[in-house]
């Protein structure tokens, strides 16, 4: 080109030059139900319209991941699991507003479009314009953004798949968070901690001076305890088969503890009824076992007792509760992500963590690198960990 002459590129060529390209990276791939994950090189496609590609900084292993890994729900393999994570925006697709490369974010399994009737409602957190599904595939077109190096498609989980160094997520499922929030705390808010705290705070609306029973003191149950404590509950009863959870629970706000193996022929609901003068105001089931759900329901007081189900069981599980107790005013509720609206409530919970109103750091019991991800599975299955942070660059 002669000096002094300007070069004008065709608009299409200029756009293509700056368009995101496929990325080769590492991911933990599950090739078959219950098998150890394999660290493989994969290809992550560019984000399409209304999508964001995130460089994952850290992720965690959740019991929900275990359920899908074991093929108890919506089996699909090969698959990249993971849905509780923290990362940085790498690139955005067309029509994405409010996000730019470099933003610190948390992906979530639920979306929030802020336009549909459900998102506009104060009583519904299940977006209907870009709805959640248990089946793999991006929410808008049902296709995957992940391939192995041979070009074969890899299924995603909840359209997130954070067991990969890069993930493509719909814009409705991405929450911007303050970069001052520690990554491993922000990560927890995307599912487990957000679910537990939210169930007490947003869904049950636990009142000051009230009584609470929590069935299962894993990470979600302990987060419920923190949420109930934050809301001012005066009695928080933890129920768990592991006696070591009594000490752990007390650190998160549990005031009383019941080990079902130590109460003889007396039922758990009878024990809790005796401790509370007829039952608790709020009961939370965090295990995913139908019989435990029934115990949780029967442990609430007549007239206005409220039971919230947080545990994810098998796809074919059925729940049986006494119909007469429903007629006497008890309430049974299901929950997705603890009833929180991700884009609205996760930043609020992050602020509460920064101000120490919520103390969630104790949920992190182990930390490993991506190549040690199977160690995280072993620790959780053996009941030795609450949340294991998996760092991508460790």
From TrEMBL:
Transmembrane regions listed in the UniProt entry: none
Occurrences of domain Alcohol dehydrogenase-like C-terminal (ranges): 220-343
Catalytic activity: a primary alcohol + NAD(+) = an aldehyde + NADH + H(+); a secondary alcohol + NAD(+) = a ketone + NADH + H(+)
Superkingdom to which the source organism belongs: Eukaryota
Cofactor field: Zn(2+)
Principal place of residence: cytoplasm
BP-aspect Gene Ontology terms: formaldehyde catabolic process
Compartments, as annotated in UniProt: Cytoplasm
Keywords for this protein: Metal-binding, NAD, Oxidoreductase, Zinc
Statement: the UniProt record of this protein carries the keyword Metal-binding: yes
Record domain Alcohol dehydrogenase-like N-terminal: where: 50-178
GO molecular function, one term: zinc ion binding
GO cellular component terms listed in the entry, alphabetical order: cytosol
PANTHER family referenced in this protein's UniProt entry, alphabetically: ALCOHOL DEHYDROGENASE (PTHR43880), OS03G0189600 PROTEIN (PTHR43880:SF44)
Subunit structure and binding partners: Homodimer.
Family as reported in the entry's similarity comment: Belongs to the zinc-containing alcohol dehydrogenase family. Class-III subfamily.
Protein name: Enoyl reductase (ER) domain-containing protein
Organism of derivation: Panicum virgatum (Blackwell switchgrass)
């Amino acid at each position: 080109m002669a000096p002094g002459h300007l070069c004008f590129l065709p608009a299409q060529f200029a756009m293509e030059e700056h368009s995101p390209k496929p990325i080769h990276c590492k991911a933990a791939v599950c090739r078959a139900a219950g098998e150890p994950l394999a660290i493989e090189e994969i290809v992550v496609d560019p984000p399409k319209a209304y999508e964001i590609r995130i460089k994952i900084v850290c992720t965690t292993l959740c019991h929900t991941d275990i359920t899908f890994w074991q093929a108890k729900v919506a089996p699909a393999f090969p698959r990249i699991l993971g849905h509780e994570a923290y990362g940085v925006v790498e690139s955005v697709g067309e029509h994405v507003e409010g996000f730019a490369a470099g933003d610190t974010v948390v992906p979530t399994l639920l979306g929030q479009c802020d336009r549909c009737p459900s998102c506009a409602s104060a009583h519904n957190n299940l977006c209907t314009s870009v709805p959640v599904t248990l089946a793999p595939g991006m929410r808008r077109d049902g296709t995957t953004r992940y391939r192995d190096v041979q070009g074969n498609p890899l299924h995603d989980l909840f359209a997130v798949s954070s067991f990969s160094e890069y993930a493509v997520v719909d814009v409705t499922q991405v929450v911007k968070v303050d970069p001052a929030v520690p990554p491993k705390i922000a990560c927890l808010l995307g599912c487990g901690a957000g679910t537990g705290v939210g169930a007490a705070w947003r869904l049950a609306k636990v009142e000051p001076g009230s009584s609470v029973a929590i069935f299962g003191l894993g990470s979600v149950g302990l987060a419920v305890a923190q949420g109930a404590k934050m809301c001012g509950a005066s009695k928080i009863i933890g129920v768990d088969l592991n006696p070591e959870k009594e000490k752990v629970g007390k650190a998160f706000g549990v005031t009383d503890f019941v080990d079902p193996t130590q109460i003889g022929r007396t039922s758990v609901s009878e024990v809790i009824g005796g401790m509370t003068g007829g039952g608790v105001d709020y009961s939370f089931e965090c295990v995913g076992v139908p019989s435990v759900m029934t115990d949780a329901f029967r442990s609430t007081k007549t007239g206005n007792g409220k039971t919230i189900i947080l545990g994810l069981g098998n796809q074919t599980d059925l729940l049986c509760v006494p119909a007469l107790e429903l007629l006497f005013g008890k309430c049974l509720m299901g929950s997705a992500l603890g009833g929180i609206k991700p884009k609205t409530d996760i930043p609020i919970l992050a602020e509460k963590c920064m101000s120490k109103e919520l103390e969630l750091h104790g949920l992190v019991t182990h930390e490993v690198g991506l190549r040690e991800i199977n160690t995280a599975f072993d620790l959780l299955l053996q009941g030795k960990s609450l949340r294991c942070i998996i760092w991508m660059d460790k």
